[in-house]
Design goal:
65% of the residues lie in helices and 0% in strands. It has helices at 9-22, 29-50, 54-70, 79-87. It is flat.
Length: 96
């Protein structure tokens, strides 16, 4: 990990508070929670992505996407598809 990518807790708290302040309020707790989660994710993503070297942005996006898929935070997660993305196609009994 590049030493340039060490973020301070104070900086994180600043962006977290910005995300909370920008989130539309709601009387419904579930709706408010969903809005907060979405706002915090995109705010922190933009903050981190802005500070990355261009060569590392795709790696970061892939790692984040894979983790969200594993946690079932994205719409559809198929373990076989995830395995294919990580390992590529497998050919059983391939002669050497």
């Amino acid at each position: 990990v590049q030493h340039m990518y060490q973020y301070s807790l104070d900086a994180f708290n600043t962006f977290l508070q910005k995300a909370i302040d920008r989130t539309q309020e709601s009387e419904d707790v579930k709706e408010r929670t969903d809005r907060l989660i979405a706002s915090i994710r995109i705010t922190i993503f933009r903050w981190v992505n802005r500070g990355l070297f261009e060569d590392h942005k795709l790696i970061f996006c892939c790692m984040l996407s894979f983790r969200l898929l594993q946690l079932r935070q994205l719409e559809e997660y198929v373990p076989a598809h995830f395995s294919f993305l990580l390992r590529g196609p497998s050919v059983p009994h391939l002669a050497e």
